[in-house]
Task: structure prediction
Amino acid sequence: MSDFYNTYEKENVTPSIFRDEDFDEMQKAENYKIGYKLFKILFSVVSIVPAFMYMLSISIGETVSAVMSLILFIFTWVMYVLYAAKASEKGVMNPSFAKSASAEWRIPCCIGFIVFCIILSICDVLDYKLTIAWGIMMVANIFISHYAKRNQKIVMKQLEDDEE
Amino acid sequence: MSDNKTTLASGTIFDEAGYDEMQKAENHEIGFRLFRIMFFVVLLFTMVFIIVCSNTENLAGTIISLVLLATLFGFYLLYAYMTAKRGIMNPKFAKSWSGTWIIVFYGIMLAAWSARLIGDIQNDDSFYDVVHYIMWLMISTEAVLMCLCAKKNNKVLKKQLEDDGEE
Result:
């Protein structure tokens, strides 16, 4: 059944534009480069829109679109963290970024900021909806800091292996 | 000068100054795979967003999600154009999308949706009633442009094959 499905899929179904199974290494490299460049721009664009939408929706009291834009907002941050995770797994995170993101003070600062926002929203100084948005960003930053540390460890291990 | 820049700038996570070719290749592969996922998820989300916002008569939300949809199609076409320019568009995809019937079919769709849109605007229909026509107009335009990109890819491939044959 599985073989039949695979054969059917390969021969009869129009593949997506993103499929690169039949490409040689050179073509794959060029394709990846294009995808990477577009990912950088797409990420920047898509991360701004839901943040803007969320602010707009809570100010006009649109609950449905506020929830939806919050989901999209979380998704963009998940993609950012996923990129950091994948890059750190291979030790290819930008060295200067990894250095600054792996600083010891970053995680306590992020946790402190979340606590500060929660206290402000309990005291009715800050809208709890904004606290949610800030909380998401800070949690993502904690993950990024963690992955930056992992990247540094991997790079160090690679250097040690090279020396040996 | 370039080294100074690398040392001084903290750089974003996407900055790849100072990478060797191997690191760049790995980084590009990660970016490409995330681009695919991000594109499909955000596209699906935007379409749902347009429907929800137009049903709840949220003007700002509808306009922003329409702009986001247009941006996403822009990225899709940009990817298609950039791959077509180098002749590295997926061969099966390029073959199926380069048919002239696609331009004719979606051209007719484009004309039909435009006529319907203009008609509804003249009848003083509300913006929320014509949102779906705008969405279909975008999809039809995207299909026509995609067909042109696929044709370009096939031309580039043909030229590459001819050049290889001459050599």
Chain B has one domain: 2-166. The radius of gyration of chain B is 21 Å. Chain B touches chain A through 60 residues (CB under 8 Å). The helical segments of chain B are 2-8, 21-55, 59-86, 91-97, 100-122, 127-166.
